[in-house]
Amino acid sequence: MSELKAIFWDQDGVIIDTEKDGHRVAFNKMFKDSGYDFSWDVDTYGELLQISGGKERMRHYFTAKGILLEGIVEKDNDFLLSLHKKKTAIFVDMIESGILPLRAGVHRLMQEAMAAGLRLGVCTTANERSANAIAKGMLGDINLEFVLAGDVVNKKKPDPEIYLLALEKSDLSPEQCIVIEDSRNGLLAAQAAGLRSVATTNVYTETEDLSPASIVVTSLGDPDGEKGVLKQSAKSIEFDGVLHADQLIEFFSD
Questions:
Q1: Out of 10, 17, 182, 222, which one is annotated catalytic?
Q2: For 150-160, how does the pLDDT look when each residue is reduced to its tens digit (9 = 90+)?
Q3: Distance between CA atoms of 125 and 47, rounded to whole angstroms?
Q4: Domain final position from 52, 78, 96
Q5: 1 in any annotated domain
Q6: d(CA 33, CA 35)
Q7: What is the 3-state secondary structure (H, E, C) of the chain?
Q8: Percent of the chain with pLDDT over 90
C-alpha cells in the first residue's frame, strides 16, 4: 500500500491567482516603462500562457512582432533577461504590498497538510525572487521543504524536469506524492513524472483539457469563504465546496 507523504504545489494560478491581475499587469507596466507602445490584453496573455515561462512568452511575442532586432541568440537572451528582471521587480512589489492575496483554501489546506504530517514543496516556472517573496512572506508560517523556481531546471512545463527534481529532493516515489496545479501544461508535467494531481481552475484554465487530473475543482475552498465546485473526480469523493487534507490522504492512498 502506498501512503500519501507529500504535496507539490505549483505557484502561479494555484497559490495566488497571479496571471491576469499580477504577471500581466507587471509585464504591461514594464513595457510602458521601457518605452514600448503595446500591452497584453487579457485574451492575448491567455494565448501566451500556453508557453511556459515569462522570458519564453516574451521571446515568442517579440519574435512574432519583429522586436528582437539583434538576431544574435546571446544578445537576445540578455535583452529578454534584462526586461524580465524589471518585470519581476514590479511583480514582487505587488506581492509584498499585499495587492494579490492567496487563493481561497491554500493556507488552510497547507496547514491541514502539515498537521497531518505531509511534506510540502513548491514547483514553479516563476522567477525565483517572486517565488521566495510568496514563500517567505505570505506563507512564512508554512514549512515548505523546498521552493524550486525559475531556471533551476533547463526545461519548462509540460516537461517533467521540475517534478522529477522534486522527487529527487524529497527522496519519495511518485506514488507517495501528489501535485496541485491549475493548467494542462502543469498537469502534463506531473503526469510525465508519474505523479497524480489535483487541478484548481482559474479564468485562464477553466476551459482547458484538465483530464490528466484525478480531481478538478474551481477552488480549494474555505469553510467561511469562497466555496469550490467539483468538476471532475476519478473516484467518489464527498465535496461540500472545501477540499481537506484528510480527504486527499484517503483519496490518494492506495
A1: 10
A2: 789 999 899 99
A3: 17
A4: 96
A5: no
A6: 6
A7: CCCCCEEEECCECCCECHHHHHHHHHHHHHHHHCCCCCCCCHHHHHHHCCCCCHHHHHHHHHHHHCCCCCCCHHHHHHHHHHHHHHHHHHHHHHHHCCCCCECCCHHHHHHHHHHCCCEEEEECCCCHHHHHHHHHHHCCCCCEEEEECHHHCCCCCCCCHHHHHHHHHHCCCHHHEEEEECCHHHHHHHHHCCCEEEEECCCCCCCCCCCCCCEEECCCCCCCCCCCCEEEECCCCCCCCCCCHHHHHHHHCC
A8: 75
Instruction: Verify whether residue 12 is a known catalytic residue.
Output: yes
The residue written with cell numbers 517565488 in the block is 131
Q: Are residues 72 and 118 in the same domain?
A: no
- Would you say residue 49 lies in a domain? yes
The closest alpha carbon to 152, from 181, 129, 178, 186, belongs to 129
Q: Please give the pLDDT value at position 68.
A: 66
| 240 carries an active-site annotation | no
User: In terms of residue numbers, what domain contains 66?
Assistant: 19-96
d(CA 242, CA 244): 6
Average pLDDT over residues 28-53: 93
